[in-house]
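Retro notes
What went well: the complex prediction finally ran end to end.
Inputs used:
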Amino acid sequence: MRAVLLSMRMLSREWRSGELGVLLLALTVAVAALTGVGFLVSRISATVAMQATQVLAADIRLESPQPIDAADFAAARQGGLQTARATSFLSVVFAGDQSQLTDIDAVAGGYPLRGKVTVADQAFAQGRGAVPGVPLRGEVWPDSRLLAALGGHIGSRLSIGAADFRIGRVLISRPDQGGTFTGLVPNLLMNASDLPRTQLIQPGSRVTYAALFAGVPDRIAAFKQWLGTHKRASERLRDISSTSPQIKSAVDRAGRFLSLASLVAVLLCATAVAMSARRYVGRHLDSVALLKTLGATRGFTIWLTTLQLLTVALLAAAVGSAIGFAAQEWLVYALRGLLASSALPAASLMPIGMGFLTAVALLAGFALPPLLQLSRVPAIRVLRRDIGPPRPLVLLAFGPAVAVVVLLIYWVVLDWKLFLGFTAGLAAFIALLALAGALLVMAAGRLRAGGGVAWRYGVASLSRRKAESVLQIVAFGTGIMALLLLGIIRSDLDGDWRRSLPADLPNYFFINIPPESRDAFITYLRARGAQTSRVLPMIRGRLTAIDGRSVEKLRFADHRGEEFANREQNLTWSATLGADNRVVAGRWWTAADNGQPLASISTEFEQWLGLRLGDRLTFDIAGETFTVRVASIRKVKWDSFRPNFFIVFVPGLLDKVAGTYLTSAYLAPGAAESLAKLAHRFPSVSIFDIDDLLADVRSVLDKAVLAVQSVFAFTLLAGLTVLLAAVQSSRDERRYESAILRTLGASRRTVLQGVLAEFAALGVLSGLIAAAGASVAAYFLTTRVLDLPYVFSLWACIIGLLGGGFVVVASGWLATRSVVRQPPLATLRADL
Amino acid sequence: MNINPIPKTSAQAPAVRRSVLKAEHLTKQVQSPEGLLTIVHDVSLDIASGESVAVVGPSGAGKSTLLALLAGLDLPSLGSVLLEGRDLTRLDEDGRALVRAQRVGFVFQSFHLIPSLTALENVMLPLELAGHAGARHAALETLRQVDLQERARHYPRQLSGGEQQRVALARAFVTQPAVLFADEPTGNLDAATGARIGQLLFEMNAHSRTTLVLVTHDNDLATRCERTVHMEAGGLR
Ligand SMILES: Nc1ncnc2c1ncn2[C@@H]1O[C@H](COP(=O)(O)OP(=O)(O)O)[C@@H](O)[C@H]1O
Ligand SMILES: [Mg+2]
């Protein structure tokens, strides 16, 4: 109780004197960065997950060749989930004398549970949302292609099996139309209660029954578990993990960048915390010695400092998480539309808890060791000022800080590989900085003889304050590097996004183009102003064996491997490597390899099936067996929206196999009519409109850029905090000796010049190492973590060097200006 | 005040009064770059309750070191210190802190006020550390004795050197300690202010009948003490 009262009293005074300001600022920024970004990232990933589930039109989807047990629906409803069903089968649809094989989906309930069905009144027109996404009884919604093929319109009639229907709308898109473009036939949506009338579903017909479920995450998880034990062997469970990667990859990158940026901010703040804690200790040695002289026990002094720290931590956590929370709310507001607000974790008290933990962890790691050290200052110091606390064990002084940093890094990246890379890089960088600092300090000692008195005084103080100088180089260097690194990566990220999403990105995919009409088709498209991308052959084939062992007998680590092995694949062959593909292992073939048994696989295929370069893959393609060797592994940028394949064969091997072609193209808005004509002229070609998807991706990226900018602002703030702490800590050290120098007759200018010489040496060196470190780190981050091409930035180096020198000199000047201005007597008296 | 006609220079406590502080064969050695250094060498001293003793000697003689040993701020390499019968050398650091909190007061050359506390709070501090009730009232009363009640809410920075030392005096006397240690209390002050502080120190000492151990260069101060011990090169002369 005494300790509480006393510590509060001392705290309030120290607060007013600005003593704890930097400490508080550093903690607050750290907490704000971590909580704000943490929550933003989790919200973004939740949204991405949501978007991914749209492809299923549900959170989870159960598919089966037999009708799904009513008990499953009952269990789901009991578990608080929404349900819907979809029954799909192939059948020929008639209209007058026209007919077309069609994929018919009979839907019921709240279909779709996720995403939306869009419809229009004309084929290939702009779609609008239809709620619910279920046609009225007696009505059907054929898609544009079907309508073009049958030549109908809204209100005209068509028949399916034994029943007759009215065309109510034109189906433009539905969420579960198949992100992988495998639907080769037109599509039609009807009401499930009309199914019996068609008399098409007979025992033995090929029908896929799907049950759709959606709800809040933990209920979904519980139900998934229940299904795991109750579903039949023939039933297939699909969830987010089995959906398409397009938006996800871009947003994942943004998320990773944001986390790294917040981590950098936190580490910078940790440096500031350490610096201000050191300063705090230096200024409180006398007070603690005095308290002990007056009869305070060591425990009491520990209590006193701990209480003060805890108060600061509490304050920082409160203010920081409030700021973080507000920033996050603001971002969510700015990103509205992108972030679906339902189904997102509601804002809770979690950020405050996290903020408090961050603040306490930083303090415990960076401030507590020196403060515990403070409590060991002996009482005798009141008589002999040169006696400080005993030297601490290195382990105790740095152990907690290292532990906290390591934990924080892991907590933010949550990925062992990235974590190890990051920590190893950081440790190497700090070691390098410390070494360089020590060398500089040594060299400075030698250089003392040259130059004027200012220079001599400057470098002399560098080499006299050895430990401090090295520490300052490390702090400045780390700070400058972090800022440079983020600057480089941010512009890489920005540039990549702009490059990857130009306005004329292909917005239509055309598949199933017959070889004989390929050239006519492309000419037709071009004549109508479409910009086509590459045209690739598409062949269906099944993987039957790996290295001679049948895939049926193989087990795959990843369930996606299983699916790959059990399904027909789309295969292609190509002589050239697209710009959106990068060979990461092996080599791309040359003309000399034509006709050799070679194939190239994507990194996904490599990972999911656990393949290696040189593995032999056996495919069954239209009844013929092909065995090829994996010649290269490609990293594919799926978000380029150009035709891409997991497996590419060498040219000259599959030429004789019957296949079709696919391409993508950009068509200006308002192309509905020419598309309708196209569909009529090339009835077998499937057309996929991905305008909506593209619009989604564009808005995601625009908003991600905004998020990245805001987080960068946090990091800058953290950098400034470090500077402030450095300024403050060196001010104390310099006040006294500047006073003595001036008493001895040095002019203010001489003293100031000396300080500037010292800081210039510090700054240029820190800047140099920081620029080098940032370039190396940027290389690894862009290529390994963010999957971007690396561009060396000379500007970053120049900015690092000059900026580093300038900023450090400026901070030195700030630190010393007020010190030098003070009349020496005032300083000497105050310090007695 | 000088009631007992005893020799003024002596290591012996006046026989009639109870001994309050007794040092036996105190030796302090420290490790220095040149080897083991003996700063205090075989000092024995017996100080009676209420007595005032001046410790004088050239700079570097070991006076401050001896004071630190007597007050239990530091431990001797050899010998023992008995304060009111308790052997300080047998107590651990916290035990000695407790003794200091309850029985000992200090005044230093460089005032040593806590900059983040007001004059009043500085004076309250030892009372609070010793767990006394009514700290505020007692502290205000003592501040009045040093004529600083008007400045109670001022911070040390806002006070002159003499005023700061008066606050330090108030802080030293407020607990009514059994022994007051003062290390050159006027050393940092100009002559006039120093004289005033000396005056105040002896007035308060007389008022509270505290035992006083005073290290000083100031002859005036030394002669006001009942007894003077001379130190030179770590030993008593
Ligand atoms: N811990 C120590 N380490 C090294 N030398 C010390 C230490 N403590 C005191 N001394 C030396 O012992 C001598 C006596 O110091 P001190 O007691 O302060 O003398 P005085 O107060 O009489 O001027 C001085 O020369 C001082 O430098
Ligand atoms: Mg001394």
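What we learned: The pocket of magnesium ion (ligand 2) is lined by residues B 63-64 (CB under 6 Å).
What to try next: split runs per interface for comparison.
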